[in-house]
Design goal:
Oligomer: single chain
Low-confidence stretches: 1-5
Strand content: 5-15%
Number of strands: 3
Structural class: mainly alpha
Largest sheet: 3 strands, antiparallel
Mean pLDDT: 87
Order of helices and strands: HHHHHEHHEEHHHH
Number of domains: 2
Length: about 220
């Protein structure tokens, strides 16, 4: 049985349309409740992957390994055990003696961007990973770009405006509440700061020189 989204009307409409176009869909579909072995990802994932690849160093894309890490979590807890680095390096396409080293470099690059948190385990400096919500990370990076000077932008990750806007459109279409909530809080903070800047400051008290009468000479 297919899983219905929260919006029942949309779900039923999409299901009916699917079945009319693909009559055997119910027999062919992979059903997470029946088949198990699943993880939930945000529908913005393709845009996140694209932005990560754009922010990566040339020839060192981060999008694929980020997606792979999501599939290694359990029960949507964002937690990844990185004990078997060889397996993860293999599935990520990092082969040979340098495979694990390359994997570690990519993990650290993701951590530097804020998309990953790493902790050591024994002799493994990247023994555990945690994947935070990527939406606040992306929005914070964009805010840094907006407030940065031309010289500062050179040092920031290359977050392309057209990709960010496409991400926002998709987030709006799927009603990503965390994105709209963060945008609202950010805008309210900007409005408050702007209002505070527009309030005329009271003039500084002028320095008053006090003159005391000279003592009479006895």
């Amino acid at each position: 049985m297919a899983i219905a989204p929260k919006n029942k009307n949309v779900s039923e409409g999409e299901l009916n349309l699917r079945n009319s176009i693909f009559p055997d869909a119910e027999k062919l579909i992979w059903d997470k409740t029946r088949d198990q072995g699943f993880v939930t990802i945000p529908k913005t994932m393709p845009y996140i992957v694209l932005m990560l690849n754009e922010m990566s160093e040339k020839g060192k894309p981060l999008g694929d390994i980020y997606q792979i890490l999501w599939t290694y979590t359990w029960n949507n807890n964002g937690f990844v055990r990185l004990g078997n680095m060889d397996e993860l390096a293999f599935v990520a396409g990092f082969k040979g003696e340098r495979g694990v080293r390359t994997l570690r470099d990519r993990l650290r690059a993701l951590e530097k961007l804020g998309f990953l948190l790493l902790k050591p385990y024994g002799s493994n400096p990247t023994g555990f990973a945690f994947i935070p919500n990527p939406h606040p990370v992306i929005l914070a990076l964009h805010e840094k770009h907006l407030s940065a000077t031309a010289a500062e932008k050179v040092t920031l990750p290359a977050l392309r405006e057209e990709t960010f806007i496409a991400f926002l459109v998709r987030a709006t279409d799927i009603k990503a509440l965390d994105v709209s909530r963060i945008q609202k809080v950010t805008q309210e903070a900007k409005d408050a700061a702007s209002a505070a800047a527009d309030v005329p400051k009271p003039p500084s008290p002028s320095k008053i020189k006090l003159k005391f009468p000279k003592k009479a000479v006895a």
